[in-house]
Amino acid sequence: MDLNQSMEFTPSATSSPQIHNFMPMTSFMLPFHQPSNEDGEEVKQSHLLVQKRSLELFWYQQMLEIHNISAFKSYHQLPLARIKRIMKSNKDMISADTPILFSKACELFILELTLRAWLHTEEGKRRTLQGCDVSKAIRQEEALHFLFDVVPLINHKDDDGKFLEENEHHPVNQPQFPLLDMNA
């Protein structure tokens, strides 16, 4: 094919743009989507439905990935040496396979928390994930409530410097532990 040849593109009003990402996006999730004059409750219900479907799709994709990995022991994204060092602090380590399974569990936890936070980012019509999105994701899902004392409540400020959401701050009753640098 000659690259110097002119090509004609005709835009089609019926086709939606293709976004190559880890999951398909509905028109509600696209950045140019303008919501109609729906009731605020209907918009919230629609957003919750999109979140639920996104999470279901996420877990379906993760299960497919796990089933399609032929050498599970050699495929991991988190450093096994760090996980083994943490697990050695417990004298009741059962199996050599435990760090591998723990690594995959941590990876899935990080991915799901990131996806939940990203859905809050999109709800706020932003393209940068912020700490307030992670905080909202933790407070919205009951299974993540164990992180209340670890993750501080962060209020997001709009362009005028006003807080978009006012919530009470939960005092930390436990000592703060430093975050581990997973790249070290």
UniProtKB/TrEMBL annotation:
Top-level taxon of origin: Eukaryota
CDD domains documented for this protein: HFD_NFYC-like
Residue ranges constituting the Transcription factor CBF/NF-Y/archaeal histone domain according to the UniProt record: 77-138
InterPro entries assigned: CBFA_NFYB_domain, Histone-fold, Transcr_DNA_Rep_Reg
Cellular component GO terms, alphabetical: nucleus
Transmembrane segments: none
GO function term, MF aspect, one: protein heterodimerization activity
Keywords: DNA-binding, Nucleus, Transcription, Transcription regulation
SUPFAM superfamilies: Histone-fold
PANTHER family hit by this protein: HISTONE-LIKE TRANSCRIPTION FACTOR CCAAT-RELATED, NUCLEAR TRANSCRIPTION FACTOR Y SUBUNIT C-10
Protein name: Transcription factor CBF/NF-Y/archaeal histone domain-containing protein
Organism the protein comes from: Gossypium raimondii
